[in-house]
Amino acid sequence: MHSGEKCACVLSEEMDMPQSSLSYHMKILCDSGIVTSREEGKWTHYQISRQGSEKAIELLKEITAVTGNSDGCKNCCE
Hints:
Elements: E1 6-7, H1 8-14, H2 19-32, E2 35-40, E3 43-48, H3 50-64
Antiparallel strand pairs: 1-3, 2-3
């Protein structure tokens, strides 16, 4: 196993999700470029891609940024 990877069997157990459901969602994440995968035997190993990491950081900065509004809203609700 490479650093930062998780096997589908581990993810399925940790998320209490059937393997078929996990595969469906991981395919979407892989197709979007957020996650990369590699196969080893009958198992697939996943890890977040550089693009996925950068996007996650960007989103976290965005949702935690303090704006001029006292409630932190970016006027999206007005």
